[in-house]
Every structure is written in structure tokens, then in C-alpha cells.
Amino acid sequence: MTKKEKLLTPQNDFIFKKIFAKEENKDMLKEFLEEVLEIKIYKLDAVEEAQMDKTLEENKGSRIDIQSEVNDNIVINIEMQISNEHNITSRSAFSVSGLLHNNLNKGQDYADAKISIVICILSFNIFKDGDYIVSASLRRDDTHKQVSDKIKIYYIQLPKFIKQKDKKRKKLAQWLYFISQEDKEELEMAVKENVKIAEAQKQYEELMKDEGIQYQIFMREKTEVDIKLARDAYHKKETKKIAKKLLAKKMSIEEISDITNLSKEEIEKLKKN
Fold first, then answer.
1. What is the rounded CA–CA span in Å between residue 112 and residue 34?
2. Contact between 51 and 240 (Cβ < 8 Å)
């Protein structure tokens, strides 16, 4: 499935939110979270599009998708990622630390802080080994014993899931077949066996008939591409400034190329100018 095709599936965070962040669909989100976390959820509140501290958000470009509070002591963010920008582990570490910080009240004892969990649903694989769902927490390097239970990150790698075909965690598999929309046979079976999946699929198909939704997704993707191109152009300009300073210090073209990743031809042109 190409990136363009994935943009029009529940792998897209816009579509995911349209389904899972609706108050009337809270039972769908509840079942999905129960299957991922392997816990019983008695209370699920504040299903909303979360906003981290604006300054941090603008500086780091972090986008948080859905925030939920579970059983009064757990706060969860679900984050979708279609494109592999090779920064998901750093980004998720930033997200979970921001989540912990933003949910600690002034004067509150650190020991009473809520457990912060980030669930990353990925349209690509980041780990060559292991299962399609990988969890990470704060542990000692020597004994691997847990240092704190206050932060945890789950990485769900959809391509690896499709390949492995999980038969043990049936309900989780059903939701992932819905989110990926890749294995039509398994999806049809999930729709027949799970009424919540059937309702989610019905709502998804209705969304796909809405031209306004498709236009919003297209324009949002276009904006993100434009921002990336502008950022790349800025970095290129700054890199050339550094190269000029290195040329002024009589450093060789080969050395400057190694440092800046500019081609020798680009540096030659800067030297002539």
C-alpha cells in the first residue's frame, strides 16, 4: 500500500480521530486500549485531540493525536505515523516526557504523578527483530529491572503485524486489520465477529464518501510537504553559510564535504562566488 493510499485509511491520524475521538464511539477506543495495554478499563475520560505546551510543540514540531485518561491514574496519547522520518523513538520519548510533565499539578508529589503512556501506531517497521508490538519503559542498564512505572511507550508496527498474523490476541488483531485496511479477508471476518469493528468500518466507509474530508486530507498533506520543503531549504542555506566559513579558514573541499554533506561541486561553486 502506497503512502497516498494510506492517507485515506484509519492509519491517517485525521481519519483515526474522526472515528475514535468521538464521544459516542468511546466504547471503540476503550476496547482498543484494553487490548493494547492488556488491562481492564473501568473509566475512560477526556477523549480529545491533545495539545502539548505550544512553545515545545512549535520548536520540536511534535503532533499529538488523541489524549485519554484511564482509570483515574493513567494518561494516554495515541499517535499515528505514516511516513518514516527516522525520528520516531526520539519523538515518542519527547511526547511521553511532555505528557508526564503536563499532567503533574503544581505542588503535586512526583510519586503521585499519573502513569503516562504513548502508543505509536506506525505504517512502517522500526525494529528488525521481535514482535510487531514492542513496549519500552525506564529500566536499569545492568539488571533491566524497572526504575519507574510512570512512563511507557508502545510501538505497533503495522507491516510486521500483517506479515506475522497474530492469532493469540484476537481482538487487538481485529482492530489492527481495521486500522490498516490491508487484509480484506481478515477485515471481513473481523466485521462479522465484532459489532464494534462493524460500526467503525461503517463510519469509515461513510467518511470515504465525503469529498470534503478527502479535500481536507489532501490540503493538510500538501501543507506538511510545503513546510518540509521550506525547512529543508533553510537548512541548506545555513549549511552553505558554514561551508563558506570553512573555505575562509582554508579547509580543503574534501573535508568541508565530509562535515556539511554538500557535494564537492556545490562547494566548488561557493568557492568561485
1. 23
2. no
| Gap between the Cα atoms of 8 and 217, Å rounded | 8
Per-residue pLDDT at 207 exceeds 70: yes
CA pair distance 232, 46, nearest whole angstrom: 37
Residue type at position 97: S
pLDDT, averaged across the chain: 85
Find, among 130, 104, 123, the residue nearest to 115 by Cα: 104
Distance of CA 206 to the CA centre of its chain: 25
Which helix (H) or strand (E) segment is 253 a member of?
Answer: helix 253-260
263: amino acid identity, one letter: S
Which 8-state DSSP code applies to residue 141? T
The closest alpha carbon to 73, from 108, 106, 32, belongs to 108
Query: Is the confidence at residue 61, as pLDDT, over 70?
Result: no
Question: What is the Cα–Cα distance from 213 to 201, expressed in whole angstroms?
Answer: 16
Name every residue whose Cβ is closer than 8 Å to that of residue 139 and which is 6 or more positions away in sequence.
145, 146, 147
Q: How far is CA 94 from the centre of its chain?
A: 12
233 compared with 253, residue with greater pLDDT = 253
DSSP character for 124?
A: S
